[in-house]
Amino acid sequence: MPITTSITPCLWFDDNLEEAMDFYTKIFPNSSIGNVQRYGEAGPGEPGTVMAGDWVLDGLTFRGINGGPMFAFTEAISLSVTCDDQDEVDYYWENLVAGGEESMCGWLKDKFGLSWQIVPTRLFELISDPDPVKGQAAMQAMLGQRKIVIAELEAAHASAS
């Protein structure tokens, strides 16, 4: 008998889950906020504030809790967004990094501290070139970037011999 399993990432927020759900669902297409559970009069949180909730980002379901300040996001886990072209890279980069911080090699932290990788499919094509010199040249170009710029990767790849 087949077993059906559903795996849903659950993210721990301090007290800004509602803001995060709204932020993320406005950036990604095919997204929505689902069930939201709020604290009642019996506590332990402020009545009416969000305790937990779920949302969908481009078809992928997430769950979140307002668990308090004792745990924070680290780079040990990130969400990767694969982009078809530079316009998509620019869109996701600019929207997700707003209020957050840039890192290297297509990585950023959003304003909630969650790490994201914004990666064009062209990067994978270039670094996987059968000619290892060309692939390495594209990789070296990427290692020097913050937001990935496809034209720079292609120029490095093309100039390698």
TrEMBL record:
InterPro entries: 3_dmu_93_MTrfase (IPR009725), Glyas_Bleomycin-R_OHBP_Dase (IPR029068), PhnB-like (IPR028973). Pfam families: 3-dmu-9_3-mt (PF06983). Residues 6-119 form the PhnB-like domain. GO terms for molecular function: methyltransferase activity. SUPFAM superfamilies: Glyoxalase/Bleomycin resistance protein/Dihydroxybiphenyl dioxygenase. Keywords: Methyltransferase, Transferase, Ubiquinone. GO terms for biological process: methylation. The keyword Glycoprotein does not apply. This is Putative 3-demethylubiquinone-9 3-methyltransferase (Glyoxalase superfamily). It comes from Nocardioides ginsengisegetis. The lineage of its organism: Bacteria, Bacillati, Actinomycetota, Actinomycetes, Propionibacteriales.
